[in-house]
């Protein structure tokens, strides 16, 4: 049996999952096995359609795919800010930042801080940190 066969099989179309499918995957025991997902899957799902679900998953400290969801929040914030909010609505990002500041744990508060810093100083963007998971694997507050 290959890794592909052992992974989550609940997607009708893995490159365009529904919020319910993404949530089911996130709580599946194999959710951390990202090698079974399409290439650049993080970039594919980190859009407006799924960001609410990803935010909810990142807020749940018991979610097996929480780090992945947090990583997608970093992609979403960077994508919105770097495109001057042509890619994503500014008000939506601000809503998530405010919720993370008010109700999130330290990881979410760090994401909110970093999003605010990038908003104030877009030159702080580094692809590795924001889009390849650097700020998730080595959490820190940028300044």
What does this protein structure show overall?
The protein has 143 residues and is an all-alpha fold. It has one domain. It contains 9 helices and no strands. It has helices spanning 3-6, 19-26, 41-45, 48-59, 66-82, 90-103, 106-120, 127-131, 134-137. The longest helix is centred in the middle third of the chain and has 17 residues, at 66-82. The radius of gyration is 15 Å and the shape is globular. The N and C termini lie far apart (47 Å). The relative contact order is 0.12.
Outline of this structure?
This protein has 143 residues and is mainly α. 59% of the residues lie in helices and 0% in strands. The longest helix has 17 residues, at 66-82.
Quickly list its features.
mainly alpha; 143 residues
Outline the fold blueprint.
Blueprint: H1 3-6, H2 19-26, H3 41-45, H4 48-59, H5 66-82, H6 90-103, H7 106-120, H8 127-131, H9 134-137
Helix pairs in contact: 2-4, 4-5, 5-7, 6-7
